[in-house]
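Hi R.,

As promised, here are both runs. First protein below:
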Amino acid sequence: MKWNELLIRYGELSLKGRNRKYFIRKLKNNIETALSDLSSFEIKSERDRMFLYADGQDDMEEAIKRLPFVFGIQSFSPVAKCSATMEDILKTALDVVGSGETKGKTFKVEIRRTDKSFPFVTNELQQKIGSHVLRNFPELTVQMKNPDILLFVDIRLEGAFLTSKVYPGAGGMPVGSNGRSLLMLSGGIDSPVAGYLLMKRGVAIDAIHFESPPFTSELAKQKVIDLAEKLSSFGASVKLHVIPFTELQQLIVNKIPDGELMTTTRRIMMQIADKVRVEADALGIISGESLGQVASQTLDSLTAINAVTSTPVLRPLISFDKLEIIDLATKIGTYDISIRPYEDCCTIFTPAKPKTKPKLEKVRHYESFVDFDPLIEAAIKERKIYNLPRQEKDVFADFL
């Protein structure tokens, strides 16, 4: 089946008032980012819908695969175009209905006639097209409410447009329409899900990860890069900051008592994240913490960790249980990456009995004997930055 365009519906964006154009422009930019490697396509936006055109059917099929992951799209439909003659409309109607399963399905025709000069009125068109389809697909039965197949025919001045498929979109808001935040991406199951949920509400993200070689491996870092790339598939680029954390982590282990070690580690990470956040022009920090999951995620621990910054720390998973998080991670495609068996810096040097109710005064007391600032500044300066999604490198580029 040859599709000529994709009709994209906005959903929540249609409810916006004077700012609707801003959100639609963001969505258009994000779709262009998601399809940037395709050979050629064009997008036109209107008040309540958007149309995507691609030159080749391969590009059109690839766009159909990617659009369900772009936030801000409620649903979309592939559309076939033909000349506005009854002969072509009847032929195309058979092609469109026949492109999917028809056995045991119910069926209905809906008409929109923008071109009022078309020589048939709506009821006449419905009867002609409906009876023609039923003659060629006798296994179909007509059903006016909630049919399995809704053949929609739009008669415009430039031709007739037919569709029968509706693909669900990701919903939510276009990424970038609600500012930027920095995601603390550990490599575990939770933090990618936290990033996904904030992106769904329109937040663009940078990500920060702490590595401790040789205690953590290149494979552990690659896992995080793959997670950040997976997040970039939801319609926005992601910049990943990888912080060398080995010296700081060894200093913490040597100078801070075991009970407060985990709290101080998180506080130093938060201080570094806050400095990187400023450079990234981000307004908040996103964390995948869930209340009560581990020792560092009690209210007492979170209070002690938060005390190093006045920046808003967004924790969208705070009330989720682990099974809910795993379900969502599986749904968005990050779970299989997160469970690769490589240790990250949060799991090495873990004390046997971390305090679940650390006292802020006591943590500050122990930290007062250590000058962390030079190592913090050095770690930020020596970080590596990865821009995702990765662009395929032309292996012949160096010879041109």
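And here is the second one, sequence first, then its structure tokens:
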Amino acid sequence: MATKTKDRSAPAAPSQSKAEKPGQAARPQGNGASPMSPEILKRLYYYMLKCRLVEERARTLFKQGKFAGNYYAAVGQEATEVGATIDLEKDDYIAPSHRNFVTNIMKGTPLEKMFAQLYARKTSPDQGRSSPAHCGNAETNVITPASTIAAQLNIGTGVALAYKLQKKPNIVVALSGDGSTSLGFWHEALNFAGVHKLPIVYICENNRWAESVSVKLQTAVEDISVKAQGYGFPGITVDGNDVVAVYRVAREAIRRAREGNGPTLIECKTYRWYGHSEIDPAKYRQPEEVEAWKAKDPIPAMERYLQGQKLWSDQWKEKITGEINAEIEKAVQFAEQSPYPEPEEALDHVYSFSIRERELNRKPWSFRGSVSSPAND
């Protein structure tokens, strides 16, 4: 796997490590953990592969001019996104950032709706209103990402507060990047959650770069997880390219949150292969750095691990790859054949019904003809 120093067969759960001490950065140790079932190991691999194939197809479609706006790929970070969210239940929430498009998959959002979101079509979860990167889905409890960096943490923290007030056993997983930790939203969310012991797990995807700013210029500490100490709950640093390690740490944090023991901050050290977005050539990074992280690709690392567990065959990979690609192709066709929303629908879900009707009934208002100047109204 990605880290040679870790014993993959039995890494320790956080409760058996330093992670239970508030603010103590800790890494899984090689003892004391229960073995994982073949089913979950294969599911972890399947979803990492699916996320990779979906993201690479989305990047290709963007470069072909199939959809407008922008796209923020998380290729290379699949172990974090899958390992941290695969254990969620139906009524749990995810609060993703603009880079976590594929976390919709982990909550069961159909690929058809996800690609319709990229294409801004009426069949998308927001009916064609928002940026391609802002893919949320109320039906599967995925909060729509906020354009303001880290603001999704505040919304997710609010959902966690609601769950606590309603005495429901559900939790929230909120994701953000290392750059978000320099913003007030991030600290406000963690402070509030710590004070009220909310059922939420914060995942910091430390991919070394906040757009073009190095993490070394973002923080003076080596491990971002130590910042949890200021808010009175555990902070854990884990290899974000090691899906088994991320899964074990996240599972324990989710259990803590669900049992009413409050939040956890998990820092996953990982890397995005491409630029901040598809229009960013990322020339601020050294090629050697990029290639070194690509050598830590979590997917072939998991393949080697599964081979060691006798859970692998080339035929199985070929089979699931074919199935996933067929699902993607069907979703792309669905998106391309879906209609755009009608112009009048731009007012839906934005204003109250009375204001919407008043605006639609204004005589000078016309979407289809020449647009009247408000000055002539």
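A quick note on the second one: Residues 306 and 312 are 5 Å apart (CA to CA). Let me know what you think.

Best,
J.
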